What does this fold into?
Amino acid sequence: MSYFAGIDIGGTNVEIGILNESGNILGKKSIKTNSKNGAEDTFQRIWNTTKELIKELNISEEEVKAIGLGIPGPVVNNSVVKIAANFSWNNDFPAKALMEKISGKPVKVGNDVKLIALGEALFGAGRGYKNSITIPIGTGIAAGIIINGMILEGADGAAGEFGHVVVNKQGYKCGCGLTGCLETYCSATGIAREGRRRLLENQDNELYRAINGNLDILEAKHIFDLAKAGDEFSMSIVDFFCEYLAEGLGMLLNIINPEIVIFSGGVAKARGILLEGVKKHLSKYALGMTMENLKFAFGELDEEAGIKGAAALVINK
It folds into this structure.
């Protein structure tokens, strides 16, 4: 039998899984990234944990044929992380070479969002579609774009960074250096900031009472939950969020013309109210022909999407 390791490296945690040739996760473990201790330390701990998992599954190391690695930031040639912004490592970080040196296994590296899209396309909500866009919405927002069954990488691995399309030139400064990026509005961070801005002007509402007036603890979930319950103040914030998301999505539809759009990530757990809000505004930004046969879905793989997508890099031929 042949087995594969799928490893999803986040800024805080690393998720590690061992999969069979069918893409089924046989076992998984999670460790802290602790990138401040250096890349070699992190990668060595990842490999040590992977070996523990292999042993627990009664698999020999020789049967693990390759490692797929997901990591935030643009990735060039399934090898080098161009911008390692989430870690205390240098840019142009040679992730593939370092992991191959430590593990002795063939390694392919991919951008985390693109790998979530690949995971959903092969094993989740995108099965059966050749052209899909997967949009994870959490702390940030981006798009994993699959065209004719292939991930769109771009010349330097930066394709799909639609969170950094500028939608308001007088808007908030974004961490990327631009001003008014979609991500500053359409993310868990963005909707919470909009909620705090409005609560400073109006405290006579259910949202303010739900957080006992403590704006520091406000999260996207508070806003979506109350909007679902019919709170008009929260509904107006969600509508604001959904219109910006519809604007960004409309750009993608007009350029890519996908068969299906898949929402994933923490904010996508809002489900119905999110999708209804986007559909309400989408016709203002997307050509009618791009919406005629368009399907919408929510990610099916949840926290396993990163592991499965990373493994798909080396399982998928």
